[in-house]
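Intended use. Records like the one below are meant for learning the mapping from a protein sequence to its folded structure. Do not use them to infer anything beyond what is encoded.
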Amino acid sequence: MRFMMLVRANKDTEAGVLPSPEMFEAMGKYNEELVKAGVLLAADGLQPSSKGARISFDGGRPTVTDGPFAEAKELIAGYWVIQVKSKEEAVEWASRVPFADGEALELRQVFEAGDFPEEIVTPEAAASEARLREELERRAGQR
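Structure written out for the chain above:
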């Protein structure tokens, strides 16, 4: 099972405030634990929304709105993607994030092809997705 741990943005992350050296070190140690346990698939912090864009669709046409975006609490400042055996194990890992008091993390399970009924994910579509995932893993291994 894959889970995404989402870090919500706040006024500091939206202002581009970087973590303290101590927090940076603590996060590095936490990420190292995830890697050693073999559960980390991806992890990154995100630049402020002022450096991003929002693309909305209406009638099949995209509309681009440059950041920043008003509601920081609805934005994501970073994430981890982990692969574990259960939601309980994901919660255990999420509970170890070295956050300060008052900070929060959202944990969400990632959809897998097997989560969809066969009329949505045909055997051909599942095989195509498997090939894409294998290609992504192959490319990641070449970096």
